[in-house]
Amino acid sequence: MEISLLHRKLGTNPQSELYVQPLQFYGEPPLENISLAEFETFAVERLKLLKTVENLGVSYVKHGSQYKLKMDNELRLLHFPYRPDTKRRKDHISHFILRLAYCQTEDLRRWFIQQEVDLFRYRFTDLPPQQKIKVHLYCWKTFLQLSDKEKNELSDKLLMSSYSVSGVTVEKLEFYKVPFQDALDLVRSRKVYLKAGFAFVPQQDIVTIVLNDFRTRLSKALALTARSLPAVHSDERLHPLLNHLSHAYLGQDYSIQKNVGKISLEQIDSLSGKSFPLCMRQLHQALRENHHLRHGGRMQYGLFLKGIGISLEQALQFWRSEFIRGKVDADKFDKAYAYGIRHMYGKEGKRADYTPYSCMKVILSNPPSQGDHHGCPFRHSDPELLKQKLQFYKVSPSSITQILELVKGMHFQLACQKYFEVTHNVEDSSFSLSHPNQYFIESQKVLGGGKDPKREVDVPQKVQETPQHLAETSEDLEMDLQSLAVNWLYVAQLSYLPLV
Amino acid sequence: MSYSDYDPACLPDLLPLYYRRLFPFSQYYRWLNYGGVQKNYFQNREFSFTLKDDIYVRYQSFSTQNELEKEMQKMNPYKIDIGAVYSHRPNQHNTVKSGSFQALEKELVFDIDMTDYDDVRTCCSAADICSKCWTLMTIAIHILDRALREDFGFQHLLWVYSGRRGVHCWVCDEAARKLSAAGRSAVAEYLSLVKGGEETVKKVVLTDPIHPFISASLEVVEKYFLEYAVQEQDILGRKECVDKVLALVPEDILFFLKSQGTVKKGQHFEKEIMLQYCYPRLDVNVSKGVNHLLKSPFSVHPKTGDYALNEQKGELLRKSGKFSFFKLKHFFFFFFSFC
Known about the structure:
heterodimer, A: 500 residues, mainly alpha, Transcription Elongation Factor S-II, Chain A, 3 domains, four-stranded antiparallel sheet, 4 strands, 60% helix, globular, B: 339 residues, alpha+beta, five-stranded antiparallel sheet, three-stranded antiparallel sheet, 13 helices, iron (chain A), 4Fe-4S (chain A)
């Protein structure tokens, strides 16, 4: 293993000390030269790993026995075993490369943090007890252990505060008093007793504190990295590679509009019944019925429409004509709602071109509340209501049962795929559903004559450029990647220095 | 003179008067300056104004109380929002290097809107409110105030009538102002019990063990439930209302009740029903963002002519004749008619 300590002024520890801790908190960036092939391989493999973590998390109960088995398997397949040896170096480096690619937008950051936290948790629960304690001591800031007297005073409150505690007497357990800001995951799900700003954490829930700490650190680090991005992006050799990473291996994000203007507004009603996934069909219906949608619904449906090719002018006309039928007059629409639509198309504010929501995003973020119609019907509707809706849409009873079974097992995207199969009269959907716009495209294909989908055709412009770019003459490539590797140190230094 | 005489068209005449005679500039400045302990805290605070004809201007900031007064008296905003304290003066944000201009701190805020209760109130809907459904706000204030003080240890809470159909809470402790976005959303979720959109019938589900926070909240709800839900809202008065209530009871319990009249241990459907009808419904999105703009206290609501006004835990507003919010509208209008 080559080690070069070129940048002592950053004040980092020698490489050997980095891997002393049982678990990586990724506090320090790697400071070594790596080979060209490794740079991209590491990044791509970690991406695959994180994608796997995401999929397993949706298909299986997180951290249950099946989940653990699958994770073990996948880690081995992707060459990411986690023992203090050379493979940790790969883990270390690949994490930092992906930080560069995933710090760029709020959505990318959120995704990256979620998968890294899940991966960290999986590894942590696998550690033997003494090693766990070592990790606690590393990240614990202020904590106090409760005395027996204090425990007794609060015993009935403590017992009622957490499922993991009830049924046991407090005498046998240790409790730790931690500021509530250090136990956010426990606070959020109300799994801990709070008093005067402190959380009283039982010993078995300490893992959540550790995770909280890991999450906070990573979040701060990504924000810092993002601020240094302009400098990183000015390096034209890194730019396409990083974009490639954040787009290509996550599949399409339907952000590049194809077929703009090919769909007329009059077609939307019939399309909603034929080719829209259930979530968008529901939103469209609610819009037509109430002549209004709340913010969450406007975002989810509006971006979907953008993705299927509705232009900005069409969108403004569409929403305006519907809202006017309700309680909103033309004037109010122009003032209050038009801005939001233009914002969606990247014409206002920071001019970010928002991407249509993937299934993952619809299922996991911004759950609907009173008055909302957005979300994933398979995830967010009462099973009874979902059943009635499917019956109304003339889905056969046996199919409904199958769909409800999938919903019960938390396989929401599979349930939607089943819905696709049933409504399009096909045996097997032949695609793996991950995006509402994907559903639309596949549906149009089936209805348009059953042509086989040619995946390459669908790859958006941006990604098509990069493989070509990388497939230039091998000499150019060698030189490019050479200078990339050298610049890695430059980039690492840039990204992790605090802003002046 | 009844409050229905308020006409938004007279705002252009009344607002200048309001900003010259009534708006409490020195207390307002004292609050937002927080003792001048942190440098440039007031100067880096974002305000936004909504002016005549719905013109909206963001990133307003001021160096002194005097500058704030002069500007507001000059612009006569229809609505004022308070945003975050930023890393630089908001009115100079365009000169700052991209990415460096960051929202640093802000009060932790909560917004409770009466329209979120439309599925469980029978007396009004949308932006209407009356003394019958105002009890919901009283309940909400009691529950949240207790939790914010006793569970989270916050001490400096400002409860404000939002001007039209709900209340806002401003938590001004230093710990609250420094709270991260993740921290804010965690607090808001801790305080949320009613979950689900149009597609969910049963919005409150309780499982054992019942967290002390829920027990404490239930105590408050139980105090008001009989008078509010059964008498004032009359939830058992009409068949459709009764059906709505019964829809929340599990089928096996209904059957059990019909045949034997006693309740299985471990089910909490009575509590769940009470909570679904009365427990506070927060808009989590308002609380989550550090840079979220919220209507300022003492900002006039253009549609009602009321101003967002401080209140002592709602009880005063409801019970004491002097401060009933309907009388407030009278007061405001009455005052102006004499100027």
